[in-house]
Amino acid sequence: MISLFVLGMESLLGYPGLGIGAILMMFVANPLSGMATGWQWLPSPWGLIGQLLPIGASGTLVRSVAFFDGHGAARPILVLACWAVLGALLVGLSAVRGRRRRTA
Known about the structure:
- By secondary structure, the protein is mostly helical.
- The chain contains five helices and no strands.
C-alpha cells in the first residue's frame, strides 16, 4: 500500500510527490502507528489518526491475526484497501493526464 501510494504521488507530481509521500509515510505515519505499544497508548486523537494510515493499519492487522484469531481485522483491511485504491487512482490519473498532454 505504501509503495503504491508513493508511486502514485511520484507519477502525478514528479520528484515533489516522491518527497511528500516519503515524508508522510516515514515521519508522520511511522510515529503515529503505535507499533511498539499499541495505538491506544498514544494521545487522543493521534492514535486513531495513526490507524487510518497504512503502517498503523498493518500493525493492527498483524496483531489481530497473530494474537486474536483475526478478530478486529476488518477495519485495518478496509483502511489498507482504501490506500491501495487511492494509489491506483493516482497512477491512473497520471496516465490519463499524460495521454491528454500527448494528444493536445
